[in-house]
């Protein structure tokens, strides 16, 4: 008798044996069915050893309830006496509620687990065909299939078979089931069977002999006429047979379904005919097939129907499969497909996705298949359909490092085992790790994690997923280093030819040079070489993701040669997560950023994510302080301006690097979605930098020539893109120079001083050196190139009052003081306000003159031979169109609308929209066109290292511009179409608003 308030000894024993609901378990043990064995320690031990003792006990009671009286006692006696049956039956009942349901419906099927002969341990297709042989209809086939599945699951949960053997048995059972289903279909339509040969080709995991418990069985059908039968009639007959076979397996009956048969991997997918002749298949793959379709054929295996025809199919297509790696953009296509799979996973599921998520099963499978396709051309030993066997062959051939292969093998086995246990519970197709703790507990215990099953399961799962994530890219690149490095004796390595093939597949144009760079970087036994060998596999992947991998690797070697002996350099790349990837992106994106970096390689430090400043732009005030401090320390003006230009070079690199990283994105940070924000950041950063550089240069020149005080007040006015805070990487600094002698000063002396300042500034900023020059352009001054470089404020006032032309008022819309005497600059702005924002706006004659000038510029200034539709500055819908339209609105309405009184194009456009001078739709069209054209110009400068207003003609440079703009390999045509479309829409708006059409 149990004392009130105390637990029974049975209750405590049940807790110790892993039951989570001991009260319910006690009631089940007290049931009539278990009365005779309830206290048998053997039974409790066996139940406690299962994945879910509660589930196993419930399943056992249900099974006993379903037994006829005599059989019930026989089952119990056998269960207690025979350990093999006890372990197998209870193991299944504790792991699979679905198979428990099956046993309750078919109570004699437990007998399938009694036999324990050696031949039963590893059955093949023949044994499974025998097990299904008496099934003459779809319902009987389902029952027989579950009976066979019962024995597979029993061997699996008891550890009699490992993961690979279980997956192979499931594939063999699927083969036998397809054959049985086809036999039923043939028996139902003997007239169709008499007309055709039909081969069933297994694809995917079934074809690879590595099937899951519940998975679509992917197939392709091949049909031919039999004995001279009409081909069309034979194909119709074959299609009916194939369709019936698929329904037999897929349809739900009183016994459920077996699994869906999926034929969507066939040519043209679901839009193509279900059955084709061999010649039709061959013609499709020769002409139309995409890269992924050849990847899928890696696992093609004839399994049912006319096996001879199936083998002919495989033999005919095999040569095409092993040429797939020669296709343009092959590696990029495969990797892009993998990324697309990840992107399509719902955000709420990605952290639970065992198969498709980052670090999941698909990462291993894709990497292995990619390597097979690249190297299987020359090495027939790699032509294997099973993932783990292929991984072992890759390691044996030196195509994958042995340690990497071992780690991947362990991770893949663990993740697949998790997947099997998840599916086995309900026999449902899923790859999501359940959120419920009870489910996770059952899965963990089924995998032998018994102390803290939930915590251990999650820890092991995350650990293996992290291994896969880390190795999945490295797997492809590590052996390239081993091919040129000193390996331990007996270690296999890539042959030079295999290494060359892999580099070509990755997009390297000069694999021989690439191998030399790798050898120079990774050979030797120094600590530097060891760190490089750790970094390079990942860097090579990032280089390959760019339009010019060769340049990326060459530039990395140059930087490493320059900084290799600096202790912080490799430590930065190794330890700071963002630095290595940022460097790889910057070095392979074009010429400008690497050129800036090579002149002062220590700027690599900016790429880190620590406290070194990073890539965030520095404000104008901060820049000016640094430059003026450098000027004060310098001994003379040339030394001071050299220091200022050094700061400018470093900050140009910072801006370019931030722009590239923001446009490309990184593994942890997607590309910047707001392209307008990217353009604004670049324009503001370069404009602030130019202003600070001019301020420092002005101070240096004045100090050297006149000490602390210039004999005239002096200001620099930014014009054009400079005044608008919209400078690009290749822009000149458009300026006006204004001075004002102090009261009583000699005006001639003041004028001479001002001119000497301008002349010396221009000279110092253009002296040939390692730093890029800063060109000062003063052609927007009164009288243009014919007028004086510097004028007094009174001279400007007199000129603008008497002689000012319409275009000068328009140019003054962008005027903003940038350096020198702030008060003089303010007064200059006051002086020009009536010119750029005329009271009551422009008259009709002035508007006509502006339109005439614009039309003349379009016809006269377009470079000969340039495609106007792709010219970002002067072409229809380009920068000039948008800017002149906005500036016309400013000239007409700036006097009345304060928001229009800005030097910035996008700001003025937004103000015009807010004032309802332009519709929101038209404003968005103009803004999009302006941003895109500006980004193209920035991209051209980044890629080519020199300014340009149109897309490059060189294919690789064009691809690099596309990559910067977010277009992957092979899509430059889409980029050009998008630009033309944007410009065409903008031109329509310009015709309406500017020309009044």
Name the assembly state. Answer: single chain
The biggest beta sheet, please? 5 strands, mixed
Report the principal-axis shape. Answer: elongated
Spans of at least 5 consecutive residues whose pLDDT stays below 50 are 1-6
**What is the residue-mean pLDDT, rounded to a whole number?**
91
Head-to-tail CA distance between termini? 102 Å
The proportion of residues forming helix, as a percent range, comes to 55-70%
User: How many DSSP-defined strands?
Assistant: 10
Strand content: under 5%
Radius of gyration: 38 Å
Given helix and strand content, the structural type is: mainly alpha
Number of helices: 44
Q: How would you characterize the overall build of this protein?
A:
- The protein has 997 residues and is mostly helical.
- It contains 44 helices and 10 strands.
- The strands form 2 sheets. Strands 1, 2, 3, 4 and 5 form a 5-stranded mixed sheet that branches.
- 50% of the residues are buried.
């Amino acid at each position: 008798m149990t004392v009130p308030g105390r637990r029974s000894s049975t209750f405590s024993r049940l807790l110790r044996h892993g039951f989570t609901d001991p009260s319910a378990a006690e009631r089940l043990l007290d049931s009539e069915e278990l009365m005779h064995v309830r206290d048998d320690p053997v039974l409790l031990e066996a139940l406690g050893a299962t994945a879910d003792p509660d589930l196993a006990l419930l399943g056992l009671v249900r099974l006993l309830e379903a037994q006829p009286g005599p059989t019930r006692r026989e089952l119990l006696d056998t269960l207690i006496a025979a350990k093999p049956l006890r372990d197998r039956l209870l193991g299944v009942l504790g792991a699979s509620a679905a198979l428990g349901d099956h046993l309750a419906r078919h109570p004699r099927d437990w007998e399938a687990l009694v036999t324990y002969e050696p031949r039963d341990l590893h059955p093949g297709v023949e044994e499974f065909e025998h097990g299904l042989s008496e099934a003459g209809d779809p319902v009987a086939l389902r029952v027989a299939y579950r009976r066979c599945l019962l024995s597979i699951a029993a061997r699996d949960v008891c550890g009699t078979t490992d993961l690979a053997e279980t997956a192979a048995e499931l594939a063999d059972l699927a083969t036998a089931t397809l054959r049985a289903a086809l036999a039923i279909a043939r028996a139902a339509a003997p007239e169709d069977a008499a007309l055709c040969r039909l081969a069933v080709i297994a694809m995917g995991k079934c074809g690879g002999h590595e099937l899951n418990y519940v998975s679509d069985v992917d197939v392709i059908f091949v049909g031919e006429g039999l004995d001279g039968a009409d081909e069309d009639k034979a194909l119709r007959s074959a299609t009916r047979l194939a369709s019936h076979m698929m329904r037999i397996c897929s349809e739900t009956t009183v016994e459920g379904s077996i699994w869906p048969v999926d034929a969507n991997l066939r040519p043209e997918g679901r839009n193509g005919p279900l059955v084709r002749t061999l010649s039709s298949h061959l013609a499709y793959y020769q002409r139309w097939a995409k890269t992924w379709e050849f990847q899928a054929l890696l696992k093609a295996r004839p399994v049912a129907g006319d096996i001879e025809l199936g083998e002919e199919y495989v033999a005919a297509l095999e040569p095409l499969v092993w040429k797939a790696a020669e296709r343009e953009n092959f590696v990029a296509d495969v990797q892009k497909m993998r990324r697309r799979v990840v992107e399509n996973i719902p955000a709420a599921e990605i952290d639970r996705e065992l198969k498709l998520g980052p670090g999941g099963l698909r990462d291993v499978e894709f990497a292995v298949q990619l390597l097979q396709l690249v190297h299987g051309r020359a090495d027939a030993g790699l032509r294997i359909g099973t993932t783990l066997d292929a991984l072992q062959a890759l390691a044996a051939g030196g195509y994958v490092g042995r340690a990497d292969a071992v780690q991947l093998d362990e991770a893949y086995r663990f993740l697949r085992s998790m997947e099997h246990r998840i599916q086995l519970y309900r026999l449902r197709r899923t790859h999501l790790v359940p959120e419920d703790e009870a489910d996770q507990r059952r899965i963990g215990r089924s995998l032998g994690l018994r102390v803290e099953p939930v915590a251990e399961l999650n820890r092991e799962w995350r650990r293996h997923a992290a291994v896969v994530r880390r190795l999945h890219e490295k797997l492809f690149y590590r052996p390239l280093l081993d091919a040129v490095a000193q390996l331990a004796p007996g270690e296999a390595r890539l042959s030079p030819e295999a290494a060359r093939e892999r580099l070509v597949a990755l997009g390297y144009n000069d694999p021989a040079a690439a191998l030399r760079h790798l050898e120079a970087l990774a050979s030797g036994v120094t600590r530097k070489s060891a760190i490089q060998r750790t970094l390079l596999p990942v860097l090579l992947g990032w280089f390959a993701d760019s339009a010019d991998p060769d340049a990326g690797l060459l530039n990395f070697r140059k930087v490493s040669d320059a900084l290799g002996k600096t202790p912080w350099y490799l430590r930065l790349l190794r330890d700071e997560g963002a630095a290595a990837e940022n460097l790889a992106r910057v070095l392979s994106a074009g010429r400008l950023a690497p050129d800036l970096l090579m002149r002062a390689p220590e700027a690599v430090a900016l790429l880190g994510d620590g406290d070194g400043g990073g890539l965030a732009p520095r404000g104008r005030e901060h820049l000016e302080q640094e430059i003026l401090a450098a000027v004060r320390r310098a001994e003379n003006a040339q030394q001071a301006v050299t220091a200022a230009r050094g700061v400018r070079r470093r900050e140009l690199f910072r801006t370019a690097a931030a722009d590239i990283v923001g446009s490309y994105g990184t593994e942890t940070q997607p590309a910047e979605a707001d392209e307008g924000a990217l353009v604004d950041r670049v324009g503001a950063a370069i404009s602030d930098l130019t202003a600070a550089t001019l301020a420092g240069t002005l101070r240096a020149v004045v100090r050297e020539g006149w000490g602390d005080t210039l004999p005239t007040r002096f200001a620099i006015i930014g014009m054009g893109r400079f005044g608008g805070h919209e400078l690009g990487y290749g822009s000149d600094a458009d300026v006006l120079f204004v001075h004002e002698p102090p009261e009583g000063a000699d005006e001639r002396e003041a004028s001479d001083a001002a001119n000497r300042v301008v002349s010396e500034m221009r000279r110092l900023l253009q002296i040939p050196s390692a730093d890029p020059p800063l060109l000062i352009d003063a052609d927007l001054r009164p009288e243009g190139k014919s007028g004086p470089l510097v004028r007094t404020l009174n001279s400007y006032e007199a000129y603008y009052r008497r002689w000012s032309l319409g275009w000068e008022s328009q140019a003054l819309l962008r005027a903003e003081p940038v350096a020198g005497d702030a008060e003089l600059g303010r007064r200059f702005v006051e002086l020009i306000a009536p010119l750029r924002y005329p009271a009551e706006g422009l008259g009709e004659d002035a508007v006509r003159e502006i339109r005439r000038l614009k039309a003349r510029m379009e016809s006269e200034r377009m470079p000969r031979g340039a495609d106007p539709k792709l010219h970002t500055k002067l072409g229809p819908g380009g920068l000039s169109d948008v800017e002149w339209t906005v500036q016309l609105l400013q000239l007409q309405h700036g006097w009345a609308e304060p928001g229009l009184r800005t030097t910035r194009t996008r700001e003025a456009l937004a103000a015009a929209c807010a004032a309802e001078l332009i519709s929101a739709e038209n404003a968005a069209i103009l803004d999009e066109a302006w941003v895109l054209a500006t980004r193209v110009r920035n991209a051209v400068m980044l890629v080519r290292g020199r300014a340009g207003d149109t897309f490059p003609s060189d294919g690789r440079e064009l691809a690099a511009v596309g990559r910067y703009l977010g277009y992957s390999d092979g899509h430059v045509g889409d980029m050009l179409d998008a630009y033309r479309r944007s410009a065409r829409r903008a031109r329509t708006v310009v015709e309406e608003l500017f020309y009044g059409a």
